[in-house]
Amino acid sequence: MTGSSARLGMEPAVAVIIPALNEAGNIDPLVRATLHAAPVRVIVVDNGSTDATAREAVEAGAIVVYEPRRGYGYACAAGVAAARDAEILVFLDGDCSFLPEEMPLLLAPLLEDRADLVLGSRVLGHIAPGAMPSHQYIGNWLVAWLMSKLYGLRVTDLGPYRAIRRSLLARLHMREMTYGWPTEMMVKAARVGARLVEAPVTYHPRRAGQSKVSGAVRGALLAAWYILGVTLRYAWRQPVSRRPQDD
Question: pTM for this structure?
Fold first, then answer.
């Protein structure tokens, strides 16, 4: 365990939220690796799975909550509601494409009061061959460029592996309940003057099953539509306030 994660016992409570839809074969090793990486609580949100996702998650040591409304944002919101006493929230995909052992890299800037939102950047880290299709890579770059122009937000990636202060998330009044949730979090955080930093993470092909986004044309198109729409939609709205109050 790294020095950052070793200090977590004296720091704010951390919950790791894992939205999951038919991730049997992935969720068991992911939950176990996450619990081993740092003293955190793991909440798996079953978003309507028809396989053994929920059972595997429980057996691995996670708390499982159910969100029948399909949508990444719905699943994330259900996880946030379940993590009532957590002051720091980590979002992690359920397909084993990210490494839980890299979580201390995301937590350190929050624990050291250098950030309010930490984004795991695959661009700054490492993208394994076959992990990110070319269209996803190009779309990622395009939206990051738009964010720099519209919000002055200097980021290299829109990856879902991230950590945020609960106090900040509560003030963002999240509304996007599908693929637009991660993008909404970023642009709203930028508009209220939150401190955003990136940490390098590695990205691998999913361990089992098929991606709901990049693994299907319809999923990829829908994700691109929502992400682009959210990026543009909030550019001219009045921000609620400037800096969030830290914990």
Answer: 0.86
